[in-house]
Amino acid sequence: MPSGLFALLDDVSAxxxxxxxxxxxxxxxxxxxxxxxxxIVIDDTAVTPKYVVGLDPSRxxxxxxxxxxxxxxxxLLILTPAALVLGYFAPWAITPILMLGGAYLCFEGYxxxxxxxxxxxxxQPENExxxxxxxxxxxxxxxxxxxxxxxxxxxxxxxIAYSQVTGQSxxxxxxxxxxxxxxxxxxxxxxxxxxxxxxxxxLHLVENTDNPATQKFGRGxxxxxxxxxxxxxxxxxxxxxxxxxxxxxxxxxxxxxxLHDLEHALASLPAVAWxxxxxxxxxxxxxxxxxxxxxxxxxxxxxxxxK
Length: 307
Hints:
Blueprint: H1 2-24, H2 26-36, H3 38-47, H4 60-89, H5 94-117, H6 135-163, H7 170-207, H8 212-250, H9 253-265, H10 270-306
């Protein structure tokens, strides 16, 4: 009897050690997954500040908090369970879903580039009536728009996170995906909060100090932030095209081999290999986005002709 008890304790001890070793690997998996989704994270960070432009500055952090709360809710209680269930019952569907998301990112990236280069911005018709809305309604509309954009990017993030832990235990899969969801949401919206309040901080330095150097620094922050937001928008668009095209390319054997061959050919120059892959994906993303845009236009034209 005692020997049986000791054997049971040994089994429990071994199980605890295995579980501890597995849990120790979670931070490494989270770091690896975060690196994989860095492009989408950059885009998410770049897109969000526009949703508080033109609103009451005193409401900026509250709006960002509302978006962040809904984003975390979607990641934890909708997207993570959906990815785990889909991965268990239909793992073959993960890659096509990733590719659809990647194609959407390319389409959105192309639309942004097209709008930047367009010489004829959209002009509202004179006879079109403008509907007046209250500041509260405008705030709700902005939050809803931000959440719609975020859920697409979040779905891509969680799908990529799941693809990185498919061969691990269910406990590790859950822990890594939940940790990624929390970490990325806090990082993205925490940084967005700092961005949107940076000009207020600069203005505070100008108005509440007599030190000329501090005032000059504050004025520099206020002048720099519009340029920074513009640069961040460009970086976000580039990241969208790069990440979207790379996701699609990895799902197609031929293009996946081309990317690996490109990296292998420049293996002696890692930085050059990375830049070449990014440029190739960026150009490929633009081309794919253009093709999708043409299909969308044809579908819209066909529907309008049927009415």
